[in-house]
Amino acid sequence: MAASSRLLRLLSLLQSRRHWPGGELAERLEVTPRTVRRDVDRLRQLGYPVRSDGGPGGGYELAAGSALPPLLLDEDEFLAVAVGLRQAAAGPVGGSGEATLRALAKLEQVIPARLRSRLRGLHDALQPVAPVGPQVPHDRLMALATACRDLHRLSFDYRDRSGRQQRREVEPHAVVCTEARWYLLAWDLGRRDWRTFRVDRIVSGPEPGPRFLPRRIPGGKAADYVARSVAVEMYRLKARVLLHASRTELADLVPAFAGRLQEWGGGRCLLETGANRPEYLAAHLAVLGVDFEVLEPPELATAVRDMAARLRRAARRSQASTGSL
């Protein structure tokens, strides 16, 4: 690999991860550790602030500098950034719209001709809808995302749905946007369990603390976990329903945002979900096309009985009307 190409490859690697052991960089670039050190020195001469730490486990990381050096993007990354900026301009992040549009204009000014038609097609196809949820300050989102990346504990004052304010200390793992709202998925040190926090309800902070070791997110995916949590917690009515079908049969019928689904034995699954009105949830359960029984709450069981009676009356009237034609 030519020296210039290797330098660009090194820069791309440093931008892709927070910290790189020297030996791993040498292996990726197929060179000696000494060559890596020389290439790092060349990047520093070009204005890239690369930090290094010595010792057997030493490595390199791209630090924040006094100026912004060029950012290396391949074609797919360039398109992803441009599309993301277009979507973000209409997103629920307060104070970032103007800066987002300025950044998008700069990208579109320098985009290669071969990518321009692809980007135009993506922009025409993706039409963002104006957000209906509360906006959150972009600096708060950045602070949360940085803590997730660098594995730093956070402390902040949080206002729950009843308006009560409490101090929380957490190990942040991911920031997720769903249903036009931003959520922080974190391990709550006080409650010793996973919690989802609405970012717009964080009223002070967040203040970074010591580093922590990451935990395994239940189910493996932060977005799915948050979607399942939101499907229950955001609604007034909480429900537990036993569905007489296997998880495989329900895979396409009950998406992650519809609630928490778990095997219950005997070819059945337990669905934990929510709604603002019991009759709405009763209707959704009916159209699943599988047998079910309501475990709780009583209001949902009543709504199911009322709906069944209403459907029986409609069926009798429809049968009578059809017979008279």
UniProtKB/TrEMBL annotation:
Q: Which InterPro entries match?
A: CBASS_pafABC_assoc_protein (IPR051534), DeoR_HTH (IPR001034), HTH_11 (IPR013196), PafC-like (IPR028349), Tscrpt_reg_HTH_DeoR_CS (IPR018356), WCX_dom (IPR057727), WH-like_DNA-bd_sf (IPR036388), WH_DNA-bd_sf (IPR036390)
Q: Which Pfam families match?
A: HTH_11, WCX, WYL
Keyword Isomerase present in the record's keywords: the answer is no
This protein is called: YafY family transcriptional regulator
Keyword entries, A-Z: DNA-binding, Transcription, Transcription regulation
Where does the record place the HTH deoR-type domain?
3-58
One GO MF term, please? DNA-binding transcription factor activity
In which domain of life is the source organism classified? Bacteria
